[in-house]
Write a structure and sequence with these properties.
Elements lengths: L7 E4 L5 H12 L3 E6 L14 H10 L3 E6 L5 H14 L6 E4 L5 H6 L11 H28 L3 E5 L11 H21 L5 E6 L6 H13 L4 H11 L4 H12 L11 E3 H8 L15 H7 L3 H4 L10 H7 L5
Parallel strand pairs: 1-2, 1-4, 2-3, 4-5, 5-6, 6-7
């Protein structure tokens, strides 16, 4: 029997990228998956593609059950309607919510390194209205179903931008907000046996990222930083690896020990002995060997055993806010 048989899931922002990969894996493992996004049908002329119907077709081709729901997560009434549909169609049941919807990619890319006072105030909403505020609202509706059934898992897709400055101020604030949401909401959910975690994938080769980086390499082939970034993402995690991690975490009897915490996909991959597609390697930011390779010391990295890792308290020091 599939490990997620009988489970009901919602994955927001699942038209492409990590959201699509997660939805595919949850459905492949037996869950009934509701996927959301603004794009129902493929947009003509789109460079990276992606639509709810395309995701649904892939899920169904693998034998999974998928319900595409067109939803603009910037509109509260559409979000409320989504969860009312899930509640009505599943007798008040919801087992997994993955908060992945994000509409700030262009705002991030167009304001990389731009000081917050030199950016239009609208950048905040472009990045964090859907990428932070909406996560909270979706979690509210999900918790209202999960708390009475005394089970459930909520996952915020986040990143290291919540630990140290990355891209621009609005991005980092939003990611730390996602992490803090898991911590504080998880604190309130603990006694109800509902887990809330913040998941940090590594370098993920999504359609959008690979297209943009490849385009940047073509425009400036002498830029070694861009070339290295392209290689990191091209050979990094596939979008489905995060889905494998969440599928296993959801059925882990000890899932509550992760409640309120930040969890790395590489760490879950080791724990559950997961394997990504051949040729792709999860980004283990705690592994000294990986960090050396990332820093350009490839020869030295070959001499360091893979089991040598940096303690997590070091990451706490990196993000320390106290004087």
């Amino acid at each position: 029997m599939s490990k997620l048989a009988g489970k009901v899931c919602v994955v927001t922002g699942a038209t492409r990228g990590i959201g699509k990969g997660i939805a595919v894996q949850l459905a492949q493992n037996g869950a009934k998956v509701y996927i959301t996004g603004r794009t129902l049908d493929p947009l003509p002329g789109s460079a990276v593609g992606g639509s709810l119907r395309e995701t649904a077709r892939e899920i169904e081709a693998r034998g999974g059950v998928c319900i595409p729901v067109q939803c603009d997560h910037a509109k509260d009434n559409e979000v409320e309607r989504l969860f009312e549909q899930v509640k009505t169609e599943n007798d008040n049941r919801l087992d997994i919510l993955v908060n992945n919807a994000y509409s700030g990619v262009n705002a991030v890319l167009n304001n990389m390194g731009v000081k917050f006072w030199d950016s239009p105030p609208s950048v905040w909403d472009d990045i964090n209205h859907v990428g932070l505020r909406n996560h909270y609202i979706c979690s509210v509706y999900a918790a209202r179903m999960m708390v009475p059934q005394r089970s459930g898992l909520i996952v915020n897709i986040s990143s290291g931008g919540g630990l140290k400055y990355m891209f621009n101020s609005a991005y980092g604030i939003g990611k730390e907000g996602c992490d803090r949401m898991a911590a504080d909401c998880g604190f309130e959910l603990r006694k109800h046996n509902v887990a809330f975690v913040s998941l940090w994938p590594g370098f993920v080769g999504t359609e959008t990222v690979l297209f943009q980086l490849n385009d940047a390499v073509k425009k400036d082939p002498e830029n070694k930083k861009t070339q290295q970034a392209y290689e990191n993402f091209k050979l990094g995690e596939t979008p489905e690896f995060s889905g494998q991690c969440i599928a296993n975490l959801a059925v882990d009897k000890d899932v509550m020990k992760y409640n309120g915490k930040i969890v790395f996909t590489a760490e879950l991959g080791r724990k559950y002995r997961l394997h990504d597609v051949e040729g792709h390697e999860p980004s283990d930011f705690t592994q000294v060997k990986f960090l050396l390779k990332l820093s350009g010391y490839k020869a030295l990295a070959t001499l360091v055993p893979g089991f040598i890792r940096i303690p997590k308290w070091v990451f706490c020091l990196v993000g320390n806010k106290f004087y």
